[in-house]
């Protein structure tokens, strides 16, 4: 697995490489009036009512692999482990149906253009940080959903973009993808100093660059990046509509205390020898199914999960009755090793049988999730 062969918690902070082949945007975030409300509010995610047709469509997307507001004024400086905010939005009708189609839009901006990358650079806590933003081709003039994708240990955003195949899916489905780079070989996911502040500043920069639908901000990540995705979802839950950690290392994470229930899909292969599916792993962190079960308990889900065999070598565990209609699921890939199932790049490719597309599973889960306005 190359650079993914090990996944230590909180390694050092070495400079990352150049991004390359993209236009650069530098400097600090200025003049955008960053704003967070100073109270803790549980803004809901409205998800579909169960429907046979919708579930059939989602299962097909998983197996085959095909699949407003302006961005909330993100806080440019978070305080340690406490994130409190209340999204402010115009009143409107939110999507309540179950299909993977686009949600109702409440947007004051539009995006239209050809598919291209933008290199984003900013200073955060005295460090020069980088990311790649991929924008899809779009002519319909609507706000874009944004998926933040965190790379694994020893990689960077530009390499993760090339290896995952996410851009091709984003171009087909019409969403933007943000690929941040860690300051060293790994993300800071444990201890008092994490990469949450950097990420929220980066999101504020992206909001200044293009038209993002703040109701559809999602996070995913692989290995150490999965831990970063989970950490961000825990600390900035009022902003995140859903999170999908893949082959995640969670041992260094602080106690998760989200401000509201959060939708989660955890994806893990049973043959993972780097972060084992059913063992403590090289650095600890518990089992994959146990991690999802703990998340379900925080979300107030009812009882044990139901299990559905999606395809050969794949089973989906789903918890029901979760608070605010959020969804908690765990996708088990039998015989699959460490990495992203079906990814084209050698660095992130998971060994084993690939009856499920990893990126297809990520987007099929996230696409229907839409943040609803906070209570009046």
- Tell me the overall shape: globular
From the alpha carbons, calculate the radius of gyration and give it in angstroms.
Answer: 19 Å
Strand content: 15-25%
Are there runs of 5+ residues with pLDDT below 50, and where? 1-105
Tally of individual domains: 1
Strand order of the largest sheet: 1-4-5-8-7-9-10-11-14-13-12
Give the termini separation: 50 Å
How would you characterize the overall build of this protein?
The structure is a single chain. This protein has 376 residues and is α/β, with parallel strands linked by helices. Helix content is 20%, strand content 24%. An 11-stranded mixed β-sheet has the order 1-4-5-8-7-9-10-11-14-13-12, with helices on both faces. The longest helix has 14 residues.
Write the layout of secondary structure elements.
Layout: E1 23-25, E2 45-46, H1 52-64, E3 111-113, E4 116-124, E5 127-135, E6 138-142, E7 144-150, H2 157-164, H3 166-173, E8 176-180, H4 196-209, E9 212-222, H5 224-235, E10 242-246, E11 264-269, H6 288-298, E12 302-311, E13 314-320, E14 328-333, H7 358-366, E15 370-371
Helix pairs in contact: 1-7
Key features of this structure:
alpha/beta, 7 helices, Rossmann fold, eleven-stranded mixed beta sheet, two-stranded antiparallel ribbon, globular, disordered N terminus, single chain, 15 strands, 24% strand, 376 residues
């Amino acid at each position: 697995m190359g650079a993914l062969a090990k996944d230590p918690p909180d390694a050092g902070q070495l400079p990352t490489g150049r991004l390359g082949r993209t236009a650069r945007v530098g400097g600090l975030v200025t003049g955008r009036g960053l704003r967070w409300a100073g109270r803790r509010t549980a803004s809901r995610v409205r998800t579909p009512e169960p429907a046979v047709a919708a579930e059939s469509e989602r299962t097909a997307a998983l197996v085959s692999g095909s699949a407003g507001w302006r961005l909330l004024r993100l806080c440019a400086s978070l305080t340690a482990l406490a994130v409190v905010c209340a999204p402010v939005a115009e009143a409107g009708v939110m999507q309540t149906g179950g299909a993977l189609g686009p949600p109702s839009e409440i947007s004051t901006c539009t995006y239209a253009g050809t598919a291209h990358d933008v290199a984003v650079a900013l200073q955060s806590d005295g460090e020069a940080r980088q990311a790649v933003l991929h924008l899809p081709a779009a002519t319909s003039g609507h706000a874009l959903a944004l998926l933040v994708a965190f790379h694994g240990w020893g990689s960077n955003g530009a390499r993760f973009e090339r290896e995952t195949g996410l851009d091709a899916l984003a171009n087909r489905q019409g969403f933007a993808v943000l690929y941040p780079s860690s300051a060293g070989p790994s993300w800071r996911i444990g201890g008092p100093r994490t990469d949450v502040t950097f990420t929220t500043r980066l999101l504020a920069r992206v909001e200044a660059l293009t038209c993002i639908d703040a109701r559809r901000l999602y996070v995913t990540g692989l290995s150490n990046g999965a831990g970063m995705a989970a950490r961000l979802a825990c600390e900035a839950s009022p902003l995140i509509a859903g999170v999908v950690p893949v082959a995640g290392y969670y041992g260094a994470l602080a106690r998760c205390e989200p401000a509201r229930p959060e939708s989660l899909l955890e994806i893990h292969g049973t043959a993972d020898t780097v972060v084992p599916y059913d063992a403590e792993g090289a650095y600890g962190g518990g089992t994959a199914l146990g991690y999802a079960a703990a998340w379900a308990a925080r979300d107030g889900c009812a009882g044990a999960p139901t299990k559905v065999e999606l395809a050969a070598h794949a089973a989906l565990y789903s918890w029901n009755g979760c608070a605010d209609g959020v969804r908690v699921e765990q996708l088990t890939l039998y015989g699959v090793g460490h990495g992203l199932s079906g990814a084209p790049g050698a660095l992130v490719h998971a060994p084993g049988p690939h009856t499920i597309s990893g990126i297809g599973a990520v987007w099929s889960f996230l696409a229907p999730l839409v943040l609803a306005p906070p209570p009046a």
